[in-house]
Amino acid sequence: MERSDQQLMSDVAAGDQTAFTEFYDRHAARVLGVLRKLLGPFRDAEDVLQETFWQAWRRADRYEAVRATPLVWLLLLARSRALDFLRRHGQETAVPLGHEPALTDDPCRTLECDESCRQVREALDVLPEEQRSAITLAYYGGLTNEQIARYQEIPLGTAKTRIRLGMRRLRDLLTEGQRPAR
Questions:
Q1: Is CB count within 10 Å lower at the N or C end of the chain?
Q2: Is the dihedral of CA 68, 37, 132, 115 positive or negative?
Q3: What are the structural domains of the chain?
């Protein structure tokens, strides 16, 4: 049976290296995705990812479940490490989580993005649940194909097929100018 994040944190705090490995495998892809948004270059994001998990290992005993979930705590550590990295390398600010620099100054671009997001959400709603779930885990959750297969308890090939077919259907819905039917 798979351990919950809370159980993993408790075990990591007790020095369980296997629990730490499981925690890393479960969340590294998502944390790396956030770091890439903040830092850009893959090499820099990978370095900060290592720092983040090193700090998580060392400070696991300070984790407080009442304040945040283990994933939120980990993402906050990652953001803090990214800001430290930027300061060390002479950059003043990072991109805030969830914001793109090109969108923050142009209200028209913000409206276009809002409309695009709405269209994507509507198109996702049309997809079969298996495809929608796999795509959501991959693109919004930052999971790899292997992690999706494990999470959904399906073969790796099935996970890849669901994503590929779902993306193809999304492309068709969005490029043909069709309004997804509900």
A1: N
A2: positive
A3: 5-88 (1.10.1740.10), 101-175 (1.10.10.10)
Q: Chunked in runs of 10, what are the mean pLDDT values of the chain (182 residues)?
A: 90 95 93 85 84 95 86 87 84 45 43 65 88 82 79 92 92 70 48
Distances (CA, A) of 140 to 29, 33, 129, 176: 11, 10, 15, 24
| Alpha carbon distance 181, 10 (integer Å) | 46
Name the nearest CA neighbour of 50 among 24, 83, 30, 18.
Answer: 24
Residues in the chain: 182
At residue 135, the pLDDT reads 86
pTM over 0.85: no
**DSSP-assigned states of every residue in 118-178:** HHHHHHHHHS-HHHHHHHIIIIIT---HHHHHHHHT--HHHHHHHHHHHHHHHHHHHHTTP
pLDDT reported for residue 101:
40
